[in-house]
Design a protein that fits this description.
Structural class: alpha+beta
Number of domains: 2
CATH superfamily of the largest domain: K homology (KH) domain
CATH class of the largest domain: Alpha Beta
Number of helices: 3
Strand order of the largest sheet: 1-2-3
Shape: globular
Oligomer: single chain
Order of helices and strands: EEEHEEHHE
């Protein structure tokens, strides 16, 4: 299987990237950002990839959740090429009666086994996580 994207320079540090028919504006400048930077898009990809896995796994475990938010923060190396050398993810689950052991299992399966983005990023540094469960009745 291959993935393909098409990216076009729009001037300055702006690019439009077309992915599966959707256009994403990428902006690497430090002023007047018109879109996310390439590295931040990678973190978004990590959150989305892991989130898909976690939601799917919890569904198979019959753990009903009503919401999931994922915050990702990463540190950059000092030398070029500047890569993420440490990533922290925070998962925020919303629902009623969510089993914490199953949440941990779902997150660890995603980060250690299923999420390809995590697999790639883990080669440059550790990915750690925390989680919280917000019980809504």
């Amino acid at each position: 299987m291959k993935h393909k994207v098409s990216t076009e320079w729009k001037g300055k540090e702006l690019f439009d990237s077309t992915v599966n028919g959707h256009t994403i504006r990428i902006d690497a400048s430090n002023e007047n950002l018109e879109g996310p930077s390439p590295k931040r898009l990678l973190l978004s990809g990590l959150a989305g990839c892991s989130g898909i896995d976690v939601v799917s796994t919890l569904k198979k475990m019959r753990v009903p959740i009503e919401g999931l938010e994922i915050d990702v923060e990463a540190g950059l190396s000092k030398e070029h090429p500047k890569v993420y050398n440490h990533i922290n993810m925070h998962f925020r689950f919303k629902g009623s009666g969510i089993n914490p052991k199953k949440v941990v299992k779902a997150i660890e399966l995603s980060l250690d086994q299923y999420c390809g983005v995590a697999g790639m990023l883990r080669k440059s540094g550790p990915i750690e996580y925390t989680y919280e469960i917000i019980d809504i009745d």
